[in-house]
Specification:
The protein folds into 2 domains: 7-90, Winged helix-like DNA-binding domain superfamily/Winged helix DNA-binding domain (Arc Repressor Mutant, subunit A), CATH 1.10.10.10; 97-149. The chain is built from 6 helices and 5 strands. The protein has helices at residues 7-19, 22-29, 33-47, 63-90, 107-120, 135-142, and strands spanning 52-53, 60-61, 97-101, 126-130, 147-149. Strand 3 (97-101), helix 5 and strand 4 form a beta-alpha-beta unit. Helix 1 packs across helix 2 (22-29), helix 1 crosses helix 4 (63-90) and helix 2 packs across helix 3.
Length: 157
C-alpha cells in the first residue's frame, strides 16, 4: 500500500485503459467485473476524484483520469524495477553499477559495451560519470564507483 492506494488498484486502472473496458480488464486479471468496478470506485472515493465518465456504454477517462493513468504507469514501472533489482540481488547481482570514466575514453566502444551490458542485464541500474583526468581512479579507490575506466598513458600525467 502506498498511502491510501495500492499497486493493485493502479494495475486495475491501467488494465481497464489498455483493454478498453471493465469487463475485459476483469477477464485479463482473472476477476469478475464487479470486483474491478468496486476497486475503481474505492480508488475514486479515497482519492476524491472521478476517473471515468460512466454516462455512455463504455466508460471514458476523465481529464484527471487520463493524467493519473500515466502516473500509474510510472509507479507500476518503478515497482517492477524495484522487484527486478531485489530479484537480481537474491541471485547475487549487484543492486547498482556505478562507473567512473575518464574524459579521453573513446565513446564508441563504451557505448557498445553499455548496450551489451543492458542486453545481458536489463534490470541492472547503471550510472556513470565522466571524471577529470585520473578522477575515475580516485572514485574507484574511494569506493564511490565499482568500475573505473581510463586510458593507459605511456607516462603518468
Amino acid at each position: 500500500m502506498i498511502g491510501s492506494l495500492t499497486l493493485d488498484q493502479l494495475r486495475i486502472l491501467v488494465t481497464i485503459v489498455d483493454t478498453g473496458s471493465f469487463s475485459a480488464a476483469g477477464r485479463q486479471l482473472g476477476r469478475v467485473q464487479s470486483a474491478i468496478s468496486q476497486a475503481v470506485r474505492t480508488l475514486e472515493d479515497v482519492q476524491g476524484v472521478v476517473l471515468f465518465d460512466r454516462r455512455s456504454h463504455r466508460p471514458a477517462l476523465t481529464e484527471v483520469g487520463r493524467v493519473l493513468v500515466e502516473h500509474a504507469r510510472l509507479v507500476l514501472a518503478s515497482a517492477d524495477r524495484f522487484e527486478a533489482i531485489a530479484s537480481g540481488a537474491r541471485k547475487g547481482l549487484e543492486p547498482e553499477l556505478v562507473i567512473a570514466i575518464d574524459p579521453l575514453v573513446p565513446t564508441g566502444p563504451l557505448t557498445d559495451s553499455l548496450a551489451a551490458l543492458s542486453t545481458t542485464f536489463p534490470t541492472l541500474p547503471v550510472s556513470f560519470s565522466t571524471e577529470g583526468l585520473g578522477g575515475s581512479l580516485r572514485r574507484l579507490r574511494s569506493g564511490a564507483a565499482a568500475i573505473g575506466i581510463c586510458l593507459l598513458l605511456p607516462s603518468p600525467p
